[in-house]
Amino acid sequence: MRSPSHPSWSIALLFVLSGAATAVRPEVGPPLPKTAWTLDEILSAVREVETGGAPDEGRRAIGDGGLAIGPFQIHQGYWQDSGVRGAFEDCADPAYARSVVLAYWRRYCPGALDVLDAEVLARVHNGGPRGDGKDATRPFWRKVQGALNRGVLDHSPRDRRDVPAGGLDVCSHVL
Fold it and tell me: Which domains does the chain have, with CATH numbers?
């Protein structure tokens, strides 16, 4: 083995210190942006906009002429797309509705969910799988953003969970 004073060690050290060594290692990618809000805050703001903070955690909230139910005003197609087992009527239950929303986001905007991109999450919730690209979802986002900026947060015990270190476990309810 060569000694650390050998010229090849000096060249290797210079190569590494100069940054040239990064050309041979694969890029990891940019760091994930920090989010301004927690998952609970985003969910609470969406709920606030959807039901106006209806009493009983929005269990009896009905909208769009009876087509949307529960605290997140979930439509049957949204519920079906989520893949969460149960019945559509279960969307009236806050904990179940939360699992439907999370499963829907995990399916249609997993990257936004991973980094808690509140705008994308809100707009997909409101406008469907490509809702974040629709101009029609901008007013909904502005309302959610306003609720987030006011600090609207439902402090019920069920809503104190955040994204666990291992990610979201929505699979236990998914077909």
Answer: 39-173 (1.10.530.10)
